[in-house]
Design brief:
heterotrimer; A alpha+beta; B mainly alpha; C mainly alpha; A: Ubiquitin-like (UB roll); 3-stranded antiparallel beta sheet; C: mainly alpha; 10 helices; about 65% helix; globular
């Protein structure tokens, strides 16, 4: 039998209640349970996580570098989406 | 994945011209201090150099488990035993982080491990020295991890994103290694005469190999120029070595030990601790595979890999059966 | 009470030591890290239990004194914990059989009348619940993996089965601690252990050996296998070579 490589899984950890899940790294595992256990053993040794997600690396769809212009630049010139765009009368406390 | 927009020009010359333009854009990004991410275009040399450097680094972590693992079963107290297990385990974890980072460059960990086992990949020369006493657990943590931290603090700012992120995680974890090492050294240094002799002997054996960990001198480092230009390496080997010596000598003095270098002297003008000549012939021999433990280290990794083959195969077979059952049930 | 705690502590000291021997030699890097976590948990439990034993004894012996300065006949661990690690399958089967036992034991002790021990149990039960999840998963993978893996772990199970009876023996030490509010119901625990084990073995397509022979026992009285002496010789060499030294 050839020694095939186990599939790659991406690991996301939530550090504390209410915090977003962040990418921590990856592990190799043959199934979800093993990926979860490996993620726990590798990325939560120091109490870094209270929740874990594991995702087959192959299931992640990523934007391509060539997408960067069309995808993200248009979001950079719309100042009216930010509160600083709007002026409030002097002396009034607006939220 | 999103399809690329249709290409406007075709043909070899257009391809070459595009490469030149891409490389210029890449260089500009590096110059601007941007980090390079896995799917970004990068020159083939950059990718190759990173794979070489990162896999060497990962191999070093994994081989580095062996010399310290050698003393886990003999650790003289339960507290020391637990710290040592945790430390060796961290090294495995660090190897894993860096392998994962390397995999983002389009190589498989399986292939990288194969290169280590068949002797075509290098790893840090320090791990080819034997661990001969308990004091070595202190001295390795202090000097070897200390040297690694000097290196890795700089690598945390390296231009390749996944490598830099792995380094940040590793640096955080490694601070405990150095401190536990120095604590062992300090304890032995104020212990019984036998303990003091043990720790001095260990420093005598590991001092020069630790200095060699920074790699060849700048005048003789074939990859340095390119790696610096791409901001993969941000300081030269000699700069880092000097920094390490300057940091370490006061620590040596604080616990009343000495280093085996009659030429060591403080230069008040440069504020550097100047040290004697490194035996590069020894370094080259160890790198070439002729160090005291090269063969044992690779044999141990090979045995672990071979003995684990049936385990990995079983897990794969089990997962296939489970997937099959699921499909049939559906 | 001292004797009771030393049994608990020695089991975990010894199995933790065996597990730590895997460090750097596991079948895959992820597993190296997992096995080290288990070794750390058991060694930590041992340290807490032996420290408590030393306190109860009142002769000033620390956890280290008990771990490093007793001879093999003074060790009270069950024999199953001291057997050499064998292949990865052997280690997993041993771990699985022991984990099932340990989780049930902590369940009983977490509710016992001794506050410090109940505290140790409450922490340990979380650790061992995870260990059991880890070892059970490997039992399924190795048992129902390839023909080779199945044959290997079945052979390990056949060998190890004879050492499981000792985990449920009841003697005067149990009677003595019962007076202190520490009750470990060995009979019902053995039955629950068996049903836990059977459940996983079924999924793993493994079977309990039909004629395993009589149960092997003796560890609780200091009658060990030949393996423990070698293990202790290695474990204690540095500490004993420098009596009185600090580390």
């Amino acid at each position: 039998m050839t020694d095939s490589q186990w599939p790659l899984w991406e690991v996301f950890t939530q550090g504390d209640h209410g915090e977003p899940f962040e990418h921590a790294g990856s592990v190799h595992a043959v199934d979800g349970e093993q990926a979860m256990q490996n993620a726990r053993d590798v990325y939560a040794r120091r109490g870094e996580a209270i929740h874990l997600w594991v995702v087959p690396a192959a299931a992640i769809v990523a934007s391509a570098p060539s997408d960067a212009g069309p995808f993200f630049d248009p979001g950079n010139d719309k100042p009216y989406r930010h509160p600083q765009f709007y002026k409030a009368p002097k002396g009034v406390k607006v939220f | 994945m999103m399809p690329n927009p249709p290409e406007l020009a075709s043909g070899a010359s257009a391809e070459a011209a595009r490469d030149v333009a891409r490389e210029a854009a890449f260089d500009a990004r590096i110059a601007a201090g941007e980090s390079i991410e896995p799917k970004d275009w990068m020159p083939e040399r950059y990718r190759k150099q990173l794979i070489r450097m990162m896999s060497q680094h990962a191999h070093s972590e994994v081989v580095g488990m062996l010399p310290e693992g050698n003393w886990i079963t003999r650790a003289p107290s339960l507290r020391r035993k637990m710290s040592l297990i945790a430390k060796v385990q961290d090294e495995g974890g660090h190897g894993l982080y860096i392998y994962c980072g390397t995999e983002t460059l389009g190589v498989d960990r399986h292939d990288l491990v194969e290169q280590l086992l068949n002797g075509t990949a290098k790893y840090s020369s320090i791990f080819n020295y034997p661990t001969l006493s308990w004091a070595d657990m202190g001295v390795i943590g202090w000097l070897v991890d200390g040297a690694a931290i000097v290196n890795q603090t700089i690598l945390a700012k390296t231009s390749y994103g996944p490598y830099a992120r792995a380094m940040i995680r590793i640096c955080k974890e490694e601070n405990f290694h150095k401190r536990q090492g120095y604590e062992i050294v300090a304890t032995l240094a104020k212990g019984t005469p036998a303990q003091r002799a043990m720790v001095q002997d260990s420093v005598n054996r590991f001092w020069w190999p630790s200095l060699m960990m920074f790699g060849p001198s700048d005048t003789n480092s074939p990859n340095s120029g390119e790696l610096r230009r791409w901001k993969v390496k941000r300081k030269t080997n000699d700069e880092l070595r000097q920094r390490f010596v300057n940091l370490t000598i006061p620590q040596v003095q604080a616990v009343g030990l000495t280093v085996p270098d009659p030429d060591l002297a403080y230069n008040a003008t440069t504020e550097d601790w100047e040290f004697g000549a490194i035996d590069w012939a020894e370094f080259n021999e160890v790198v070439r595979g002729n160090g005291p433990c090269n063969r044992e280290r690779i044999a141990a990794r090979r045995a672990a890999h071979d003995n684990g083959q049936w385990v990995r195969a079983a897990a794969t077979a089990h997962a296939e059966k489970q997937a099959q059952n699921k499909t049939e049930a559906a | 009470m001292f004797e009771f705690l030393v049994r608990l502590g020695d089991d975990r000291l010894v199995i933790g030591h065996r597990m730590a021997e895997w460090c750097g030699h596991g079948p895959i890097l992820e597993e190296d890290i997992a096995l080290a976590n288990i070794a750390l948990d058991y060694t930590g439990q041992a340290s807490a239990l032996l420290a408590l034993a030393g306190d109860m004894e009142g002769k000033g012996r620390s956890d280290d004194a008990l771990a490093y300065f007793r001879d093999e006949t003074q060790f009270r661990n069950a024999l199953i914990t001291e057997l050499p690690i064998g292949d990865f399958g052997f280690t997993i089967v041993r771990q699985f059989l022991f984990d099932c036992h340990s989780v049930l034991l902590w369940e009983a002790l977490a509710a016992c009348g001794h506050a410090t021990l109940a505290g140790i149990a409450a922490k340990a039960i979380k650790e061992d619940t995870y260990h059991l999840r880890h070892s059970s998963e490997w039992m399924r993978k190795l048992g129902d993996g390839t023909a080779e893996s199945h044959a290997r772990v079945q052979a390990s199970l056949d060998t190890l089965w004879r050492y499981t009876g000792e985990l449920f023996e009841h003697d005067a030490v149990d009677d003595a601690v019962a007076a202190l509010g520490i009750v470990v119901p060995h009979d019902t625990r053995a039955a629950r252990w068996r049903s836990l084990v059977d459940g996983v073995l079924r999924e793993a397509t493994l079977v309990v050996p039909a004629s395993p022979g009589p149960m092997v026992t003796g560890g609780r009285r200091g009658r060990h296998t030949e393996h423990l002496g070698h293990m202790l010789a290695e474990m204690q060499i540095v500490a004993r070579s420098h009596p009185g030294a600090s580390w």
